[in-house]
């Protein structure tokens, strides 16, 4: 597996409404712990569409990992100016990350026209990658479910890997990070 995509929830779907929400640290660390073995096993490129939330957090994690690993990151939004209606802080984050990644290219060289652009983006990511890492909770549902259903269907006819990150994985990371903190043990 040389190329994967990462996707998952938007911040609002996870109850995260500020760019400095302390819970983002746990999500990013969980993503790092899942991405690292994939990179060590040969993943060279990670492609995202640049959605706010899990995709941009994964991008930040990957940019940090680039300092030690030979991994490349590409942002392929479905259309130009995808971030134009986002809150200002997320727009700034998107622009900053777009300047730091290895490649940025909109799949449609025009602004938003319709849902077909999102469907085409999902298909393009499936066609260009060997697998996906998706933060998703089957019981909660939400927007990543659309991509997941397409990935499962795609998997029926192609050699395609689906790796999950669940809320339980994030809970495990929270517990592990707390236990690694010496202050945690001083207060028990």
Automatic annotation (TrEMBL):
It comes from the Bacteria. SUPFAM superfamilies: MCP/YpsA-like. InterPro entries: YspA. PANTHER family: UPF0398 PROTEIN SPR0331 (PTHR38440:SF1), UPF0398 PROTEIN YPSA (PTHR38440). Belongs to the UPF0398 family. This is UPF0398 protein GCM10011389_03020. It comes from Pontibacillus salipaludis. The lineage of its organism: Bacteria, Bacillati, Bacillota, Bacilli, Bacillales.
